[in-house]
Amino acid sequence: MSSTKSGLLACGLGACLLAPVAAGAQQDDADSPPADVVRAELTLNLRPVAVSFEPGLGAGDPVYRELLTEDVSASSTRVRVGEIEAMPRLRIGTLDGSQPGGSESPDPATATLELWLARTAGGWSLDLRGKPDADENGTDDDADGEDDGRAAGADTAPSGRDTTVIGQVALTREAAAAQETFSAALVPTGEAAGQLILRWRDHRWTADLHFADPPDPDEEEAGEQAGEAESEEASEPAGEAAEADEVGGDESEEDEGPRVANERESLRFDSDTSAGARFLRLSERHESAVELPGDARLAVLFWQEQSVDLDDFAGVETLADGEVLRLTRAAVLRLRNETPLRFGDVAIPTGNLAPGFAGSYGLWLKRRGDGWRLVFNHEADSWGTQHDQAFDAAEIDLAYSRDGLATRPFGAALVPEAPAAGRLVIHWGAHEWAVPYTIPE
C-alpha cells in the first residue's frame, strides 16, 4: 500500500466522510446542484472531482452558434457550459489546489467554479470562474440590477483579463461524430490522474487533470515551524512602537488567510452508517459515477493499482474463446444502478438482489470468437477469479479498440452523453471496450 494511501486511511473513518462528493453525503440546499443538471464524478484514492452541466445546451441555439461555427473569426467568444467541483490538490490547467492559495481561489479546498468554454486566436480553452455572490434575495449582486452575463450564454465582455477568472485550461480539440447537445465527462487515466472530456456538435475537447500527493509530514512540519519563526520575527515590535503596544494592551491578531481544509480534516459529520460502508469501498476502489436529473445515480467501481505491469494484463491477449478475464489481485468490476438501464435490447433492472433497492452487478469481460462480450452477474462482490456462470444475468456485445493510452491501469468510466443516455467504457492499457446505454422512460 502506498504511503499516500496509508496516510489517508490513517485519518480514520470520520475524516473520510469529509468530502460531500466522495462520501455521497447530502449537501446543504444552497450548495446542491439544480435538479435538472447531469453530474459526472470521478473519485481516485478517496479524492473526488465532479463536473455538472445542463443537458439542454443545444448547438442550434443562436447563443452558441457563433462559438461553434467553423469560421475562425469567432475568436474571443465565450459561453458558460457548466461547473466543476474540486477537492484539495486538484491540478487542471493553471488551477493548482496543491498549495493553500496556489489556485488564487478564495477557498480552493471546496471550490465550485463555473466553466466557460472560450474560443480565442490561439485555439480553445476553458475559463474557470468563481461563482457570483448572491444577495439576501438570492440574486446576483449587480449595481445596475442588470444581468452580468453569467447565465448560460455568451460573455458580454470577453476582452481583457476578467478578474473573476481563477484559472484557465487549454483544450485539445479533435473532430468527432455530431452531438447536438453539450456533454461533459471525467474518465480515469491513472491512479491519481484523469481527463475532462467535452462534446458538442462535431467537437471533442480534452484536458488532463491529476491530484498532487500530500506533502511529506516531516517536510510539512518543518515548513510550518520555519513559517512560525519568520512570523514571530516579523511581528516583534521595536522601540517606541513596542512600548505603545504594551501600554495599550491590545495585541493585533495575525491574519492567517483563508482556512483551507485537507484530506485529513473532517469537513462534515454524517451519521448515516451507509457513508461508513462507502468509505471502506473507496479505500480500495476507484469510482466513476453519473447523477441524473431527478437524483438517480449510476456508478461503476473498480479496484485500485491494477497496472499494465501485472501478469493478469497479459491475459487480455491470450484469453480463449468463452473464457472471462481473470483478475487475481482485484475484485470484479461492480455496477450500481438506481434506475433501470438498457444496453441495446438487454434490460438491466434494479432490485436484482432485493426488491426496492438499487441494482448491483458484477461485470466480467468475456471473449467470444473474434469479439468481446460483457457479462452481468448477480454476485457483485466476487473476487476477480471467482466467476460463477450460474449467477449470470445477461450478456451484451462490446465494441473493442486498441487506440487508448498504453499506460492506463484497469478501470472503467460512465460517460454521459444526454440525460437518458451515455456509454460504459472499460479500459486496460491500450485496450478499450465500450457499449452505449439508455435509461427507459
Could you characterize the architecture of this molecule?
By secondary structure, the protein is an alpha+beta fold. It has 2 domains: 33-211, no CATH class; 284-438, no CATH class. The chain is built from 8 helices and 20 strands. It has helices at 3-10, 12-16, 20-23, 62-68, 217-235, 239-248, 273-282, 311-318; strands spanning 38-44, 47-53, 77-86, 90-92, 95-96, 111-120, 123-130, 165-188, 193-211, 285-291, 297-303, 333-337, 341-343, 346-348, 359-368, 371-377, 392-401, 411-418, 421-428, 431-438.
Name its key features.
441 residues; alpha+beta; 2 domains; 8 helices
The biggest sheet, with number of strands, parallel, antiparallel or mixed sense and barrel status, is:
18 strands, antiparallel
| Radius of gyration over all CA atoms, rounded | 24 Å
Compute the number of helices: 8
Q: State the end-to-end CA separation.
A: 44 Å
Which segments are poorly predicted (pLDDT under 50) over 5 or more consecutive residues?
6-31, 100-108, 134-161, 237-272
Helix fraction, binned, reads: 10-25%
Average pLDDT works out at 78
- Portion in strands: 35-45%
